[in-house]
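Lab notebook page, bench 4
Experiment: in silico fold of construct C2
Operator: M.H.
Input chain length: 235 residues
Purpose: comparison with the prior construct
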Amino acid sequence: MKLKILSFIFFISLTCFSQINEQIENLIIIGKDSIPRPYIDLNEVILFQPLTFDDYDSAKKYAVLRNRTYKVYPYAKLAADRLKILNDRLKLIVKNKQKRKYLKRLEKFIYDEFEKDLKKLSRSQGKILIKLVHRQTGQTTHNLIKELRNGFKAVIYQATASFFKLSLKVEYDPKNIYEDYLIEDILLRAFSSKKLIEQPTALEYNLDELYKLWKKKKENQINTKKTSIRYKIIG
């Protein structure tokens, strides 16, 4: 019986404490006085423009692009994280010989760690990854190699990439490249729905402005196909 009473008192005290906290949180304290807050905190809500496409093929391409972006974005995010750590550590290394040794060891570590995963990427996924590395770091993959290793290495890697019809010099440009605009749209929607973990981009873009820009470009296209059927991407 005593245990039941103590449990009941403990429950009541917790309830009262939570109510007091709730009351305090909803009051503005000025000295010894308190007044009700004139507003209520709400979670931020991000509104996106509806996605519509003129034909089935366009909607399908968007869906494929979304899947590819979901797959490679974590690698671009990881690259940006590693780059920050790398730059912080390089500041502590004085001698150039030690820096070169450290970078070579790091390159081997990254190669061994991600070789299998990166080999599984298709050429299209690799192309998106190169763009997203620029989005997350503010530098092209070519410039990163040139800066961290040397110009000769950058040339070699670029030549290798060219063999697979890729370029390490490609930049992320959603203002001028429609696919990049779609990638930006995909990323922001994924961040909002928590499907991807957001990492601040090194570049700045406003999705609403991009939407207006591309809407105007599409409207100005002479050979735009007009149809009564519109396709939407759901989810």
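Observations: The first strand starts at residue 27 and ends at 30. Strands lie at 27-30, 33-36, 52-53, 231-232.
Next step: discuss at group meeting.
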